[in-house]
C-alpha cells in the first residue's frame, strides 16, 4: 500500500513538472495530452472494475457450490450408520412377518415391541429413510428390488412381477441403499403340440 502512495505522489510530481515545463507549449496540445492520459486512466479503471466484479462473482459461485456440496455430504453422511441399523430393522420385519409365532407372543409384549419399532422407524424417516415395500403383482424393478428367486407363473401378465416379498428395502433421500428382496414371476410358454 505504501508503494501505491509513493507512485501516485511520483505521478503528481511528474505531472506537475510536465505542466511547468509545458507552459511554453500550445494549450491545445496540453489539453489533447491530458485527454489521452484521462482516456487511458478510464480504460484501466474499467479493466480493474470488471476484473474485481468477475472475482466477486466467482467467489460467490464458489461459496454456493461449497454450501451445496456440504449439504449433500451431510445428507448422506448417515448412510454408514443406517446400513448398520438395517439388519435390526429386517429382524423386526421378520418377527412381524411370522404370523404364527408372532400371535403366540403375549399381546402386551407385542404391543411394546411394535411401539419400539414405530419409534425407530419414525426417527429413520425424519432422517430421510424410506421403506421400499413392494406389493405383490407390481412390476419387478431391478433398481428397487433384488430378485432372489424366480417362481413359475401360469399367466403371461404375472411374469416379471413381484410374487412374494421376502425383505423390505430402504432408501436414503431417494438413493437405494438396500433393495427389497423379492421372488419374481417367471412365465414360460409351453412348447408342447
Automatic annotation (TrEMBL):
Location of region: Disordered: 1-21
InterPro entries: GrpE, GrpE_CC, GrpE_head
Example of a GO cellular component annotation carried by this entry: cytoplasm
Stored Gene3D superfamilies: 3.90.20.20, Head domain of nucleotide exchange factor GrpE
Biased composition (Acidic residues): 11-21
Domain of life: Bacteria
Protein's GO biological process: protein folding
Bias-annotated ranges (Basic and acidic residues): 1-10
Location of the protein in the cell: Cytoplasm
Keywords, ordered alphabetically: Chaperone, Cytoplasm, Stress response
GO MF: adenyl-nucleotide exchange factor activity; protein homodimerization activity; protein-folding chaperone binding; unfolded protein binding
CDD domains linked: GrpE (cd00446)
Similarity comment: Belongs to the GrpE family.
Subunit structure: Homodimer.
Function: Participates actively in the response to hyperosmotic and heat shock by preventing the aggregation of stress-denatured proteins, in association with DnaK and GrpE. It is the nucleotide exchange factor for DnaK and may function as a thermosensor. Unfolded proteins bind initially to DnaJ; upon interaction with the DnaJ-bound protein, DnaK hydrolyzes its bound ATP, resulting in the formation of a stable complex. GrpE releases ADP from DnaK; ATP binding to DnaK triggers the release of the substrate protein, thus completing the reaction cycle.
Protein name in the entry: Protein GrpE
Lineage, broadest ranks: Bacteria, Candidatus Tayloriibacteriota
Amino acid at each position: 500500500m505504501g508503494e501505491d502512495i509513493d507512485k501516485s505522489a511520483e505521478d503528481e510530481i511528474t505531472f506537475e513538472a510536465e505542466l511547468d515545463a509545458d507552459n511554453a507549449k500550445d494549450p491545445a496540445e496540453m489539453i489533447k495530452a491530458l485527454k489521452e492520459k484521462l482516456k487511458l486512466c478510464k480504460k484501466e479503471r474499467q479493466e480493474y472494475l470488471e476484473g474485481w466484479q468477475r472475482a466477486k462473482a466467482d467467489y460467490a459461485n464458489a461459496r454456493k457450490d461449497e454450501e451445496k456440496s456440504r449439504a449433500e455430504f451431510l445428507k448422506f453422511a448417515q448412510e454408514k450408520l443406517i446400513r448398520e441399523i438395517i439388519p435390526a430393522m429386517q429382524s423386526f420385519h421378520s418377527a412381524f412377518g411370522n404370523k404364527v409365532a408372532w400371535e403366540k407372543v403375549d399381546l402386551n409384549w407385542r404391543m411394546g415391541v411394535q411401539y419400539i419399532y414405530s419409534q425407530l422407524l419414525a426417527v429413520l424417516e425424519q432422517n430421510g429413510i424410506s421403506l421400499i415395500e413392494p406389493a405383490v403383482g407390481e412390476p419387478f424393478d431391478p433398481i428397487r428390488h433384488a430378485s432372489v428367486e424366480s417362481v413359475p407363473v401360469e399367466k403371461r401378465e404375472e411374469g416379471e412381477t413381484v410374487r412374494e416379498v421376502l425383505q423390505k428395502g430402504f432408501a436414503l433421500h431417494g438413493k437405494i441403499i438396500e433393495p427389497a428382496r423379492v421372488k419374481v414371476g417367471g412365465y414360460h410358454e409351453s412348447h408342447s403340440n
